[in-house]
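In the previous chapter we treated chains in isolation. Here, by contrast, the input contains two separate entities that must be folded as one system, with a combined length of 224 residues.
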Amino acid sequence: ETGVTQSPTHLIKTRGQQVTLRCSSQSGHNTVSWYQQALGQGPQFIFQYYREEENGRGNFPPRFSGLQFPNYSSELNVNALELDDSALYLCASSLGGDSPKQQFFGPGTRLTVL
Amino acid sequence: QKEVEQNSGPLSVPEGAIASLNCTYSDRVSQSFFWYRQYSGKSPELIMSIYSNGDKEDGRFTAQLNKASQYVSLLIRDSQPSDSATYLCAVKGYGQNFVFGPGTRLSVLP
C-alpha cells in the first residue's frame, strides 16, 4: 500500500456530464500529479499540483481542471465528458515539486462514459 | 515531443528464466528513470529507480542505464508466474513531468 487513496473506485457517466475525482496524497507529500490511462496504453500526464498551485500541464483541453487543498489532497474535474474520456484516472503523490525522486500511485478511478 | 518507447510484447519466458525488458527515450536531458509494474486492473507499482549510468540491483531485479545510448533496461532473474504483468518505463528531466512508455506485457509460463 502506498498510502495514496482515490475515490470513487468506479464511476459511470453519460456524455456531456461533469465528474469530480478525488485523491488524498501520502502523508508528508506536497505534490500530486494526475494521469489518464486508456486501455492498453501507458499513463498520460494531465497536470501536477505543488503546494496548491498548478505546476505543469500535459496536452489536455481546459475542460480538465484541478485543485489542491491545504492538506495537499486534490481533485480532478472533467466537464463536458466525451466517450474518449473513458479511462483509468490515476493520481500519484510525491515530495519535491519540480524534481521529485519518486512518485507513488493511488489505486485509480475507473471512469466509463456512455 | 518527448517520447518513451517500449516493445508492447507480450514477452513470454519460462519460469526460472531471465526476462529482459527494454526502453528507449528521446529527451537527452532526462535525469531520472523508473520501472513500474502494473497488474491487470491495478495501478502502477514502483519497483526500481535509477539515476546514474550502470547497473542497479535490488533482489531479483537489475536496472541498467546507458545515457549515451538513451537506453534503460530491466532484468528479472529467476522469473516467477507472479511476475506476469505489464512493465512501464518512466523518464523524467529536471522541472519536467514524468513521461511513460506504453508498457511491455510479460508472461511467465509455469
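The mean pLDDT of chain A is 92. The longest strand of chain A covers residues 87-94. Compare these points with the single-chain example from earlier in the chapter.
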